[in-house]
Amino acid sequence: MSDVLIRDVRPEDAERSERYKRRKASGMKTLYVTDLDGTLMRNDMTISDESVRILNQLIDKGVLITYATARSFHSSYDITKEIHFNIPVITRNGTTFADQENAKELETAFFTNDVINELREKLSVIDRFGFTSVYMDGKMFKIYLNGPRSKEFQGYIDYYESIGDKRMLEVDDIEKLYAENTSYFTLIGSREELLPYYGAVKDSDRWETIFQKDTYRDEYWLEICPKDATKAKAVLKLKNELKCDRVVVFGDSMNDLPMFEIADEAVSVANAMKDAIEASSITIGSNEEDAVAKYIESKEK
Predict the structure, then answer these.
(1) How far apart are the first and last CA of the chain?
(2) What is the mean pLDDT of residues 54-69?
(3) Average pLDDT for 267-283
(4) CA-based Rg of the chain, rounded to a whole angstrom?
(5) Using CA atoms, how far apart are residues 185 and 153, in angstroms rounded to an integer?
(6) What are phi and psi of 90, to 5 degrees?
(7) Which of 70, 143, 163, 279 minimizes the number of CB atoms within 10 Å of its CB?
(8) 3-state class (DSSP) for residue 179
(9) H or E segment at 136?
């Protein structure tokens, strides 16, 4: 497969390409932001040695590269720790900024108590389908209730328990799911089971909602983030802090679409969902072909 697949050029894409050429010639500062699962990561949930090598060479010579993921920092760090990311990384769909070099979180958004209470009402089935992410003494825990669960959520628990993840915390008291420092709601189940609850929360302007199929399994995730905690807004904040002139983003899924909308160049991988491919300006090789790393390398020669 070719590294780069370009569709029929739309007028807006041609204009964006010309802007890119002018900016490149003038030495404008570019920020590259890649999704992880299904984009930089391969289907076995690893990053290839070749991608690590290319990205480290680019970062070490001053190219600004980071990632934006739905994963927690703990989870994403284990996968990306061999890469020399030296600017803040974006985790939990924009809820948390983290410092990869020093392996610590920098900034996290939390729900207000009144929002927690409203979500508790609307997502009363969370005891069967998911967990809340709560911070205690500066550490994040995934708190879930003892009792019957969806097979999809039970599979999630079984996996993280099998690898000894101490962030998983089973409790007997449902009140412990709703502590003050709650930053995230996660429900895992079938599309049919979760769809009514997505309908109950999707239109509110008091939080951010993501509902999509898992990259690896036939299950759906309903995730609720604090208001204004999105990948797109986190990318724009980082762009401003680093005083970058432009942003190039890479993605494959529904939660990447807001990033595509605010980017100067939106790049989908060949294995991306149809909506992501249609929303992007260019489609490159798949996540199995080191396509993200090779594309950045080609632009920075």
Answers:
(1) 22
(2) 97
(3) 96
(4) 19
(5) 13
(6) -115, 125
(7) 163
(8) coil
(9) strand 130-136
